[in-house]
Design brief:
- By secondary structure, the chain is mainly alpha-helical.
- It has a domain of 54 residues.
- Helix content is 43%, strand content 6%.
- The relative contact order is 0.16.
- This is Extracellular solute-binding protein.
Length: 108
C-alpha cells in the first residue's frame, strides 16, 4: 500500500494544439503566459476563445489563485501570528494581475 499526500497541488492545463499551431512551447512564467495568450488570441480572432480561464468568482477558488499568484512572485506571508492581514512584500503580483486580467483572462 502506498499513500501519497499531495496537499495543495495546482496545475496549468493548456491547449497543446494551439501552442503547436502557433509555434510556442508551454509557458514557464506568468510573463510567458501573458505574451503567448495575447499572440494566440490576436491570431485566432475567435471571440469565444480566452487566453486563460481561472477561478475568479468570489469563493475559495479565488483565494487559492490569489495565494498562488502572490507566492509565485515571492510575496511572502499574508497574515501575522495573530491572523491580521499583512501587505505582500512585493507589489508586482498586483500590477501584473491587473494588467493581464484586463487583456486576456476570463474568470469563471
Amino acid at each position: 500500500m502506498v499513500s501519497v499526500r499531495l496537499g495543495a497541488l495546482m496545475l496549468l492545463y493548456y491547449r497543446k494544439d494551439l501552442l503547436d499551431k502557433h509555434g510556442f512551447a508551454p509557458p514557464e512564467t506568468w510573463a510567458d503566459l501573458e505574451r503567448i495568450a495575447r499572440v494566440i488570441l490576436e491570431r485566432e480572432a475567435d471571440p469565444q476563445l480566452a487566453g486563460f480561464v481561472w477561478q475568479g468568482s468570489a469563493y475559495e477558488g479565488l483565494t487559492c489563485n490569489a495565494l498562488e499568484w502572490i507566492d509565485s512572485y515571492r510575496g511572502g506571508t499574508i497574515i501575522d501570528l495573530y491572523a491580521r492581514p499583512l501587505a505582500p512584500r512585493s507589489s508586482r503580483p498586483n500590477s501584473v494581475w491587473s494588467r493581464i486580467s484586463r487583456r486576456c483572462w476570463r474568470s469563471h
